Amino acid sequence: MRFRVVYRGRKLTVDVTHEAATYRLVEGEPLDIRHHGRQITVDHQDVVLAIPEGPKPDPVSQPVGCEPRRRARK
């Protein structure tokens, strides 16, 4: 996915894949942003940062007595 952002007169291009995000300032002064909680400064050079793996959700189970009804097979 690729998109552009204009923020306070600065133009930023962001390119995101499953593995990494690439930030590049197209126009304007260097810009401080956050990438997954980490503060970085983006300028006119590509900044490539890994995307951390997402949190693993806990398994979901239905409360006792509220399970979906099974359909009869024909």
Tell me what you see in this structure.
The chain has 74 residues and is an all-beta fold. The protein has a domain at 2-50. The chain is built from no helices and six strands. The strands form two sheets. A four-stranded antiparallel beta sheet has the order 1-2-3-6, with no helix packed on it. A hairpin with a 2-residue loop joins strand 4 (31-35) and strand 5. The termini are far apart.
Structural class: mainly beta
Q: SSE order, as H and E?
A: EEEEEE
> Main beta sheet, described?
4 strands, antiparallel
Overall body shape: elongated
Poorly predicted ranges (pLDDT <50, ≥5 residues)?
none
Helix content: under 10%
- Radius of gyration based on Cα positions: 22 Å
Head-to-tail CA distance between termini: 46 Å
Average pLDDT works out at 91
Strand tally, please? 6
Tally of separate helices: 0
β content, as a range? over 45%
* Widest sheet, order of strands: 1-2-3-6
